[in-house]
């Protein structure tokens, strides 16, 4: 712990993407002999043709300046600080596991800078790096110590109603009230027939320009979570088929992350070493690799709690145990999956 704990502090204390990328690069160089290559703001370390992908991110949800009021600290077995649980301790565990392997040939490690904002620029790199891999292990934080075998797919939609403005006092009848139309849309969304575990939640809305003007436009953001690709397609069609009582509806957005369905082989490998797995509602970059048909196991990162919340923490005593588990899983995949011989 004396060797890696200062690195965890350095990662948590680095707030900007540039500073954190520098800390990650230095950590890789220290333990693996060379830093990762930069692909824009994303960092990729690889040796040979990738057969196993270790996946994570170094961005957090915390704004610049958070460390000044809430610095990294250790209290007994707990380390706290912004991003320590999600997922900077996972980065340390990733590197420790890699450093313990007798050979890194065929191992790739990808740390992205935009997972918390939807992975818009990193998705192509994730998918191109993962292509042909026998397994992907995601270093997102655990669920109460348990690994994550499945994740819901996530969707982000904007439903907008177009109406017609008019004076609310003099001639409201000449207007088309987009807010009234949107209200009917929200009620329709709330009454959709949903599959088991599917959630379709109206969140942020806006309408109108002034109190004496009939609103000409109104919109609502919709959060969608589903367990299967077929359910995602069904919900998408339902949302696009809604008709407002007045005005006209337009629908933007769609599914941002496909569902991460279970990979029984990897779950069994972990279970054989005494680690349980659970399905969770939130998405990660593992959703992309699983949708490609690549066996994916998530939640191999930190043990702790309160991701995205004040007081998030990780348990220091679990770091080396989880690193060892990751190394064992990588070793087993490598042993049971021979390298692809070029034709």
Fold blueprint:
Blueprint (H helix, E strand, L loop, with lengths): L4 H9 L3 H16 L4 E3 L2 E5 L5 E6 L8 H4 L3 E3 L2 E3 L3 H17 L6 E6 L10 H8 L4 E4 L8 E5 L1 E10 L15 H13 L8 E9 L9 E10 L2 H12 L7 E10 L6 H8 L5 E4 L5 H6 L4 E2 L6 E2 L7 E3 L3 H18 L7
Parallel strand pairs: 3-6, 3-7, 7-14, 8-13
Antiparallel strand pairs: 1-2, 2-6, 4-5, 5-16, 9-11, 9-12, 10-11, 15-16
Helix pairs in contact: 1-2, 1-4, 2-4, 4-10
Q: Can you offer a commentary on this structure?
A:
By secondary structure, the chain is of the alpha/beta class. The protein has two domains: 5-151 and 260-336, Aminopeptidase (3-Layer(aba) Sandwich); 153-257, 2-Layer Sandwich (Alpha-Beta Plaits), CATH 3.30.70.360. The chain contains ten helices and 16 strands. It has helices spanning 5-13, 17-32, 66-69, 84-100, 123-130, 178-190, 229-240, 264-271, 286-291, 319-336, and strands at 37-39, 42-46, 52-57, 73-75, 78-80, 107-112, 135-138, 147-151, 153-162, 199-207, 217-226, 248-257, 277-280, 296-297, 304-305, 313-315. The strands form four sheets. A six-stranded mixed sheet has the order 1-2-6-3-7-14, with helices on both faces. It has a four-stranded antiparallel sheet with strand order 4-5-16-15, covered by helices on one side. A four-stranded antiparallel sheet has the order 10-11-9-12. α2 runs parallel beside α4 (84-100).
Q: Which tags fit this structure?
A:
single chain; 343 residues; alpha/beta; Aminopeptidase; Alpha-Beta Plaits; 2 domains; 6-stranded mixed beta sheet; 4-stranded antiparallel beta sheet; 10 helices; 32% helix; elongated
